């Protein structure tokens, strides 16, 4: 799989972004930059704004105030981004047919679809399950199938919302291996997770959110070895942020 690094769409910049749903502040003055390179991992308690950041960066939510730009432009390039939600929905067809459908929707020429389907199933470790009904796959297998579908467009940026939530260690390892593989091929991964161990294993950059605000951000290694803010230290110690 050859991937355009999407330099024209990166960095994705949030400038004082506010997003509200009625009286609820989903994001409250968020300013951040998502640049090419190693995965950016969003952490924070439930309701902190992680999923909202992913959806806004994907262009699925319009800010109430503030600006989001993609490579200094006001909207992303068509097909340059993909997102996998925490609970992916499988179509009522085989695992292989789910991927073929995504390739067709992405405009991949018919002559290339068979080969690309094989490549994506192999990347996701699903070649032996190609003909199994997708809805009969295990939870981890469905997440891998969802990743294969998302990669059909050869996105420059891949957003992942809790990709290993509720999965056992073996299934988690399989998902993390795919993330490493696509990162090595030039895809920028931006993901949310509750699993601090996973964040340690995958992140090049950490963004800690709470109540729709960025509490701390920076390279992963110094963050985990010595978070700067008191709130980050409390969160890392397992205390509740209220």
Any idea what the shape is? globular
Q: Estimate percent helicity.
A: 25-40%
Structural class by helix and strand composition:
alpha/beta
Number of strands: 9
Q: What multimeric state do the chains show?
A: single chain
Indicate the radius of gyration in whole angstroms. Answer: 18 Å
Low-confidence stretches: 1-7
CATH homology group of the domain at 12-89 and 156-236: P-loop containing nucleotide triphosphate hydrolases
Account of the protein in words:
- The protein has a domain at 12-89 and 156-236: Rossmann fold (3-Layer(aba) Sandwich).
- Helices cover 34% and strands 24% of the residues.
- The protein has 8 helices and 9 strands.
- A 6-stranded mixed beta sheet has the order 5-6-7-3-8-9, sandwiched between helices.
- The N and C termini lie far apart (44 Å).
- 42% of the residues are buried.
Quick recap:
This protein is of the alpha/beta class.
What is this structure's SSE topology?
Layout: E1 12-21, E2 24-34, E3 40-43, H1 50-58, E4 65-70, E5 81-84, H2 95-105, H3 110-123, H4 139-150, E6 157-161, H5 169-184, E7 188-192, H6 196-202, E8 205-210, E9 213-219, H7 220-225, H8 230-236
Parallel strand pairs: 3-7, 3-8, 5-6, 6-7
Antiparallel strand pairs: 1-2, 1-4, 8-9
Helix pairs in contact: 2-3, 2-4, 4-5
